[in-house]
Amino acid sequence: MPLTTSQSANGMGEGSMQGHSIELVVNGQSHALAIDPRQSLLDVLRETLDLTGTKKGCNQGACGACTILVDGKRVVSCLTLAAMHDGGEITTIEGIANGEELHPLQTAFIEHEGFQCGYCTPGQIMSGIGCISEGHAGSPDEIRFWMSGNICRCGAYPGIVAAVADAAERS
């Protein structure tokens, strides 16, 4: 049967691609959104909510620059659709400080020089928070293993591992 002008090849009407309603709690604030159901969570955060701290690196899930927490679990936001997280609690780098007081891992990154150019730093910090909360920060080797999905092209790994270990000890 031929497609009509209101259908696409996937059988959805043209209007179906826009206006999918979801609600996300992002950094403690509720957002009712009308999104394209094909949008990644990364794109919704950056383009719709203007939360640009979460970085777009490879857009293929290989670098970890877009790591956030969804319901407390680490997620590479470029590989997950926003529509899959309706009702979910999202934490981005913008939501971890307590006012002017930095998150302990942010402080540790500064103290241990866990960054150089800084592009990967938000994803590294979010992954580090997840790593600590999951109980995977018992040794430098364990931290390196559980943080291996986050790439630092500058090679700041010694400082990153030291920062995660320090923050884990403080928590």
TrEMBL record:
Q: Which Pfam families match?
A: Fer2, Fer2_2
Which key words tag this protein in UniProt? 2Fe-2S, Iron, Iron-sulfur, Metal-binding, Oxidoreductase
Any idea where the 2Fe-2S ferredoxin-type domain is?
20-96
Molecular function per GO: 2 iron, 2 sulfur cluster binding; metal ion binding; oxidoreductase activity, acting on the aldehyde or oxo group of donors
Q: Which SUPFAM superfamilies match?
A: 2Fe-2S ferredoxin-like, CO dehydrogenase ISP C-domain like
The keyword Ribonucleoprotein appears for this protein: no
Cross-referenced InterPro entries: 2Fe-2S-bd, 2Fe-2S-bd_dom_sf, 2Fe-2S_ferredoxin-like_sf, 2Fe-2S_ferredoxin-type, 2Fe2S_fd_BS, Aldehyde_Oxdr_Iron-Sulfur, Beta-grasp_dom_sf
* Keyword Manganese among record annotations: no
PANTHER family noted in UniProt: OXIDOREDUCTASE WITH IRON-SULFUR SUBUNIT (PTHR45331:SF2), OXIDOREDUCTASE, IRON-SULPHUR BINDING SUBUNIT-RELATED-RELATED (PTHR45331)
* Protein known as: (2Fe-2S)-binding protein
Supply the source organism's classification: Bacteria, Pseudomonadati, Pseudomonadota, Alphaproteobacteria, Hyphomicrobiales
